[in-house]
Amino acid sequence: MRKIFVFVSVILIVFYTSTFIVEEGQRGIMMRFGKVLRNNNNQPLVYTPGLHFKIPFLESVKSLDARIQTMDNQADRFVTKEQKDLIVDSYIKWSVSDFSRYYLATGGGDIAQAEILLKRKFSDRLRSEIGRLDVQEIVNDFSGRLTTDVRDSLNTGSADQDNLGVILPINQNSMAELGIQVIDVRIKQINLPTEVSDAIYARMRAERESVARSQRARGAEEAAIVRAQADYEVEHTLAEARREALITRGEGDAEVAQLFSSIFSQDPDFYVFLRSLRAYDNSFNSTEDIIILNPDSNFLRFMQNPVTDLGQHKVK
């Protein structure tokens, strides 16, 4: 029984050490004595996801990530065709297209090493493409021609085409030589350098302030016109009111004068008596005033002998 247990254990150990599993999204490179195992065409053996066998203790497997990778690039300064600086922020989507080339070119499938090589080539190609365009062409590139040209040039080693529109053959400068395929290139943001944007903002601010001053001056002018019109309307209304008041007062004075004239023509003595009463009223309406008159003054004749005078003047 013990022998059976030992035999089964040995079988399980051998099976475990002679098999390996490549996970989904990965690829396997077989190593024998530290060297890459190659096929009859001298190409490294690449294992797809699934269960595979190997020679125990002699062979090992190096797993490589087969998923799409995203590489964010640090914002960098580029010069356009008209020698203007732009700060471009971008990223790249890439994946491994040839695992054997990728493994050998990156020192064993090191993603960091792969991105160093990719970033260097990408920066050169993007700088070259931006240098062929002006700012307006770059900003208005809604079709994505710029990024498409950069992607194609990275994959083929050249963005140029012949007259038939056929991509030139892959050369040693392409990412294909590294076993890498660039899937997509995107520009996240395009900015002007700080010193340039500050100058532009200052100019824009000055222009807006000039427009604001012009608007305020126009508003003040219109307000002065409205205020002058309102003052004219007020003065015109007051003048009309004063004119009507003078007319009314004149008409009243005329009626009073006519009334007094009528009274005077009918009874002159009564008119004199009425005028004297009005004079008394105007003279004695204040308790603080003092009037010194001769007792024989004609002004007080109606106060000295009122009965006789009233009878003489026929007061009714």
Report on this structure.
With 316 residues, the chain is α+β, with helices and mostly antiparallel strands. The chain has four domains: 65 residues, no CATH class; 125 residues, Tetrahydropterin Synthase, Chain A, CATH 3.30.479.30; 72 residues; 38 residues, no CATH class. 51% of the residues lie in helices and 19% in strands. The protein is built from nine helices and nine strands. The strands form three sheets. Strands 2, 3, 4 and 6 form a four-stranded antiparallel β-sheet that branches. Strands 7-8-9 form a three-stranded antiparallel β-sheet, covered by helices on one side. The chain has a two-stranded antiparallel ribbon with strand order 1-5. Helix 3 packs across helix 5. The radius of gyration is 57 Å and the shape is rod-shaped. About 3% of the residues have low confidence. HflC and HflK could regulate a protease. Belongs to the band 7/mec-2 family. HflC subfamily. This is Protein HflC. One of its GO terms (molecular function) is peptidase activity. It is a single-pass membrane protein.
Key attributes of the depicted protein:
single chain; 316 residues; alpha+beta; Tetrahydropterin Synthase, Chain A; 4 domains; 9 strands
Topology:
Blueprint: H1 2-17, E1 19-22, E2 26-32, E3 35-36, E4 46-47, E5 50-53, E6 59-65, E7 69-79, E8 85-96, H2 99-105, H3 111-131, H4 135-139, H5 145-156, E9 180-191, H6 194-266, H7 268-283, H8 301-304, H9 306-312
Antiparallel strand pairs: 1-5, 2-3, 2-4, 2-6, 7-8, 8-9
Helix pairs in contact: 3-5, 6-7
